[in-house]
Amino acid sequence: MNSLCEEGLSPVPGLIHRYPDRVVWVISNSCAVYCRFCMRKRQVGCARPAPSEAAIDAALHYIASSPAVRDVILSGGDPLLMEDDRLADLLERLRRIPHVEIIRIGTRVPVTLPERITPRFCRMVRRFHPLYVNTHFNHPREITPASALACARLADAGIPLGNQTVLLKGVNDDPAVMRELMLGLLRIRVKPYYIHQMDLVRGTCHFRTPVATGIAVMEALRGHVSGLATPYYVIDLAGGEGKVPLLPDYASRDGDLLKLRNYRGEIVEYRDVTNGEVTTPRG
Ligand SMILES: *Cc1c(COP(=O)(O)O)cnc(C)c1O
Ligand code: SF4
Fold first, then answer.
1. From the CB of 44, is ligand 2 less than 6 Å away?
2. What is the pLDDT of residues 197-214, one digit of tens each?
3. Span 252-266, mean pLDDT?
4. Which of 5, 36, 40, 153 is catalytic?
């Protein structure tokens, strides 16, 4: 079991079907680096075999016979540790399934092995649009000329780029560092998508931050910088219960009167309606 008990939601080996319209497909067990905080630690590395041909056939069959699945997220490990031809073959087979509208690739390779994003790879992958890539930068220092070039090549191939960051104590749990990271990502055409509260993985508690730290980071982003630079801060609940976004407290309610706090801390009142009914203030 990994830290999120995802195997319990796995209809066939390698597929995680938690939400109605999308599946995560673990197609690679290798990464370019092995991150200390990784929640898929038990699934990556040489101890775990790569998916067999039979498992790949079974996953494709499951997706093909599940018309509700319109979004397939290729994950791992890192899918980009697979060779171009093998990846192209999988993408081709996925694209033959009419109800698969979008394909996403989750990969840390633009950061950890940017040379992997070759012009040849980009020519291959752009045949499978609409295709999205979500990458994983955790610190502004990971934005180097090499990682910026990798992202530029993907963006030039028409691939919308998103980023998932893990909130790590002593690394990026500082609003100034996170702001620099988010703005730096936008400059290389990567849209900040999620900041993840770190999953509970054995041996990583020195990276754990209280939720209040993540809320403080969000507070320092929303309103202070471009909305494009503001991701969702989420906790991925154990047991396959889903991702839940966490926000600073911006609103309190007194009957139909909402008291809304803006980014400068000013409280502004807003009168709500409740389906045309007259509401009486509590009191
Ligand atoms: C995170 C996740 C997804 C994708 O969620 P989005 O919010 O659509 O990015 C899908 N399935 C599983 C199992 C996940 O953990
Ligand atoms: S690259 Fe991603 S999947 Fe691989 S070890 Fe790091 S966090 Fe885990």
1. yes
2. 998 877 888 999 999 999
3. 95
4. 40
